[in-house]
Specification:
Length: 74
């Protein structure tokens, strides 16, 4: 597959319902707390991805999927 589905991040945290807030750690390598913009999901060409910054934990992925499913069920 030549595209990936991703959620953009922002450091301007508002805590919208359905958005996950990530605290910086050695796994995600974020420089500052960041809010995952669940409502702004998008597909991106793999060619645009230059380098991996970090990862998120499986439980965070499950929370994102759950939040996305809740949004889509409306």
């Amino acid at each position: 597959m030549k595209v990936v589905i991703c959620f953009p991040l922002t450091t301007k945290i508002i805590n919208y319902k359905g958005n996950l807030v990530l605290e910086p750690d050695t796994i995600n390598n974020l420089a500052a707390p960041s809010e995952v913009l669940t409502f702004h999901i998008r597909s991106v060409s793999k060619e645009r991805l230059v380098k991996r910054v970090g990862e998120i934990e499986e439980k965070q992925i499950k929370e994102l999927v759950s939040n996305l499913n809740e949004i889509l069920s409306y």
